[in-house]
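Dock inosinic acid; give full complex structure.
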Amino acid sequence: MTDVSKQRLLLATRNAHKTREVREILGGDWEVEDLTARPDLPDVEETGATFEDNARLKAAVGSAHYDGWVLADDSGLEVDALGGAPGVRSARYAGDDADMAANRTLLLERLREVRGKERAGRFRCVLALAKGGEVVRVFHGTVEGVVTPSERGSGGFGYDALFVPEGACRTFAEMTGEQKHALSHRGRALVALGAYLTGGATA
Ligand code: IMP
């Protein structure tokens, strides 16, 4: 049921992990629903060359069909030794129908001969905020780190079990949600978004 004391936001995703993280990071003042509650809204093909292109596309299309703020998250892992791959193809690295276990296996395989600091990379998150079919603002968050030689930890999602952020010794999958969000690309982008929304933007 809609809580009228809260501001509403539609997250243009069917990825339940992203929705959970956005809810955890934005906190209780926001009622965040996602596309699983809106089967009437179209799925958008991610045809952009950059995270920002894709975030803008998803937010603009979603907001043309929704009365209020729409937020789209496009994110992924860039590994320097792989020329920035998997990048915008993070969700589909091992093929369009591949699951995340296959994507992680392929990443480890491609980095098999790469050692230590040469395994550096970053998670990037771009958030596009839109209303009435127009993107009004874009927020960026990144976290530098290294890809581990094997999976560690059972929390999180995606490539979390393979990524140790700079300054830490645990992977994101070995951290609590709170610990991950304090360091993560999504946490950083959402802090900027939260400041913008609470600083006077009206739905
Ligand atoms: P997209 O933004 O829907 O194109 O997919 C992003 C993909 O990047 C996800 O499916 C994950 O594989 C990966 N990814 C994005 N953010 C995270 C994260 O916080 N942890 C682990 N993997 C992530």
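Observed: Residues 15, 46, 74-77, 90-91, 100, 123, 156-160, 172, 184, 186 surround inosinic acid (CB under 6 Å).
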